[in-house]
Amino acid sequence: MRLSLTTWNINSVRLRIDLVAKFLKSARPEVLCLQETKCIDDAFPLKRFKRLGYEHVALNGQKGYHGVAIVSKIPFESKDIRTFCDKLDSRHISVSFGEKAGIAKPLVLHNFYVPAGGDIADPALNEKFDHKLRFLDEMTACEPLHPRGEDRHILVGDLNVAPHENDVWSHKQLLKVVSHTPVETEKLKAALAAGEWVDVARDRIPMSEKVYTWWSYRSPDWTVGDRGRRLDHIWVSRALKDAVSDFKILRDARNWERPSDHVPVTVTLEV
DNA sequence: ATGGTCGGCAACCGA
């Protein structure tokens, strides 16, 4: 069975539901993972997703901030929500797929929204940066995020870190900018290395090539200088590495009307 | 080197 799965920081699912519909109608992934939905579960536009054919929904929303969701054409076996740093922030949700979806060997999917970390890259001066670093440490320490051997796990989301030199438009100029500081990039790499994970983008695209999924709103023209960063990630466990048949970053979505500052990132697997 | 723009929600906070 072919499973196509998209991650997208939507920056308010209610405001951009028409863009989500446009995307789903053309790309038709089986599963869509959203971050920054910015609404409580009761306000999530469920009916719209159901009409689009996405009948299975797992929500972890909160009022005004953060919020993650998984919407799917195929049914889940189970859902789970984890908290990090002893905060009630809605930054994680996971589901599993199995027999109900016609998938013989179980598949676990985690959807994350890692704290952005504020503006000052010093945990002593900036509590938000401290929170981000502790969040990454907890991901690394989290046993369920350590796939081994035959485990079929997928981890996606807005991880708010651009780990490699060519994940940003200027490595030199961003070394002290939150999202690309060495302390963050090392912690993200440690989280990846804590399990048998494969970073799909960098498995498929040479390290020498620039890859971005986010372009700031704070520029009158996002295309000038192409000042992007790769903040949105898809990891698959080693057992799924050879199942990956396609990987796409829909850069064009940054040009849509009233866009999110992030674009959809999609992986296709033969499961 | 600095400031720039969004969204939620009703003054700023978070990104």
TrEMBL record:
Coiled coil: none annotated. Signal peptide: none annotated. Keywords: Hydrolase, Magnesium, Metal-binding. It comes from the Bacteria. The keyword Repeat does not apply. The keyword Magnesium applies. Residues 7-262 form the Endonuclease/exonuclease/phosphatase domain. Its cofactor is Mg(2+). This is Exodeoxyribonuclease III. Belongs to the DNA repair enzymes AP/ExoA family. Gene3D superfamilies: Endonuclease/exonuclease/phosphatase.
